[in-house]
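Recall from the previous lesson that a structure prediction takes nothing but the amino acid sequence as input. Here we apply that procedure to Putative membrane protein from Aquimarina intermedia. The sequence below is the only information supplied.
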Amino acid sequence: MKFILKIILSALAVMILAEILPGVMVVNYVSAIIVAVVLAVLNAVLKPILVVLTLPVTILTLGLFLLIINAAIILIADHFIGGFNVSGWLWALIFSVLLSIFQSILYSLLNKE
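The prediction returns the following tokens.
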């Protein structure tokens, strides 16, 4: 049940960010839910592999390279989902940072119950 609530909250954050950021577009609520699910799957499967493969660069940049990995995952999701569009690397980077902040806030509200 908690996973479904997190997906819905992530979809809400995606919709809000798509309205705020001019470089990010989501067609409708269904696309936002699909984006949330695809991002959850990519973060669970692909991100650990990328982190291990880029560990030396991540250590050299004191962890800042993880932002690039997050942006790459956003762009991969953009490639797979038809109703979701990110204009480039910069918008993917901004979107990933703001999405992390929004999710942290929304998930903290979920944990207070």
